[in-house]
TrEMBL record:
Annotated keywords: Membrane, Transmembrane, Transmembrane helix
Record protein name field: S-adenosyl-L-methionine-dependent methyltransferase
Keyword Acetylation attached: no
Pfam families reported for this sequence: Methyltransf_24
Tagged with keyword Membrane: yes
Highest taxon in the source lineage: Eukaryota
PANTHER family named among the record's database cross-references: S-ADENOSYL-L-METHIONINE-DEPENDENT METHYLTRANSFERASES SUPERFAMILY PROTEIN
Transmembrane segments: 18-38
Organism: Dioscorea zingiberensis
Length: 329
């Protein structure tokens, strides 16, 4: 029999040894991660240093994700650190609208017959200024005048404050047909109602109705011919655009603000950014910035040899090079 005291002592020894190994593994893990990332952009033919990666495994407690097991790492899947950077050949910009309609709604505009009386009764009266976050700051005006985009892709639209502002800006510089694709799952985020209940319709059978509230604002602004919802997760929407050869001249990132969401959004958006185009986003200098957006932007710029220009609350990356350096990603 082992006494309780000894038991505690033994488990301390085990856990101390374990902690030391765990710490080591974390160090190796971050080292491997860095090497993998850096090598991925500099040496196309050499696979990243994958030996050290993916040691995160369940051990004693299968639910304990912090338990690290440094021995016998499984082979690292090659896509762990890599995003597809090669999308289909671009389709002509004047075919994008039709392509979206055909693929998403059997060729019919989502605004056709909108809103049905059954939907209308759940929506809030139109607000003259929909709730947004830095949605009309000067970065929009500056980038739209500089890029003069024919196609804008927005990740994270909410009620359309920034999208409709961009619509007005393009109209004001004689680009009334610029297409604005609004990628959003139109669910906002869990718990949003607790402080945004005045801005959001009352959910109906668990449907947030954010999509329809947004569409109402677009309709009111007479922009239904070119401000289109793309009501899916950013991940699946960007993958589809990549497959269809739909590129944006200007892409705004303002969806999930944790590191992993921002990192994936930025990488996938870069793939569908037209060479010469500009990628920018929100929350470089707001209280949300340390949730991960700033770290994701900084890392992305570093790995790809780009500059980050802070612009108010926003970040702006240097334009996508016309000739992409050959990488294996
Ligand atoms: C801060 S709001 C966007 C605000 C808007 N750009 C503006 O200026 O008014 C973020 C939006 O991102 C959407 N979102 C968050 N994560 C997402 C994801 N993974 N896929 C699609 N949409 C997402 C939410 O539904 C929410 O509407
Ligand atoms: C998870 O593992 C760590 C490291 O071994 C340990 O310190 C922690 O107490 C474990 N947590 C749980 C919930 O088992
Ligand atoms: C567009 O131009 C009109 C008329 O000059 C002006 O009132 C409006 O503020 C401009 N919109 C934006 C977003 O700059
Ligand atoms: C939209 O079009 C209608 C009908 O042409 C017009 O009465 C209204 O003022 C327009 N709204 C805006 C915001 O331009």
């Amino acid at each position: 029999m082992i006494s309780m005291k000894e038991d505690i002592k033994i488990s301390r020894i085990i856990s101390t040894g374990y902690l030391a190994r765990a710490t080591m593994a974390i160090l190796l893990l971050s080292l491997g991660y860095t090497i993998g990332l850096l090598s991925s952009s500099s040496s196309p033919s050499r696979p990243p240093n994958t030996q050290l990666l993916l040691h995160v495994q369940s051990d004693a407690n299968p639910n304990n994700c912090t338990t690290l097991k440094p021995d016998n790492p499984p082979p690292t899947p090659p896509d762990l650190l890599r995003f597809n950077t090669k999308c289909s050949e671009p389709i002509p910009e004047d075919q994008i609208y039709r392509t979206i309609l055909d693929n998403l709604w059997d060729g019919v505009s989502p605004y056709s017959g909108f809103p049905s009386p059954a939907t209308a009764e759940h929506l809030l009266p139109l607000s003259s200024k929909p709730r947004g976050w830095g949605s009309t700051t000067p970065v929009f005006q500056d980038l739209i005048s500089a890029v003069r985009p024919q196609t804008i892709i927005e990740l994270g639209t909410f009620l359309g404050a920034s999208a409709l502002h961009m619509a007005q800006l393009t109209r004001n510089i004689s680009l009334p047909s610029t297409l604005i694709l609004c990628i959003d799952d139109f669910r906002s985020w869990p718990g949003a109602r607790r402080y945004l209940h005045r801005d959001l319709p009352v959910p109906h059978h668990a449907d947030a109705l954010l999509l329809h509230q947004f569409m109402l604002a677009v309709q009111n602004a007479n922009e239904t011919h070119r401000v289109l919802p793309f009501p899916f997760s950013t991940n699946s929407a960007l993958a589809a655009l990549c497959t269809w050869g739909v590129y944006g001249d200007l892409i705004e990132v303002d969806a999930g603000h944790d590191f992993h969401s921002a990192w994936a959004d930025i990488n996938m958006a870069w793939a569908v950014l037209r060479p010469g185009g500009v990628l920018f986003g929100h929350d470089y200098f707001t209280k949300a910035d340390n949730m991960g957006v700033r770290r994701a932007v900084t890392l992305f710029a570093k790995v790809n040899g780009l500059r980050v220009r802070p612009h108010g609350q926003h970040w702006v990356l240097s334009p996508k090079p016309q000739l992409q350096p050959q990488t294996s990603r």
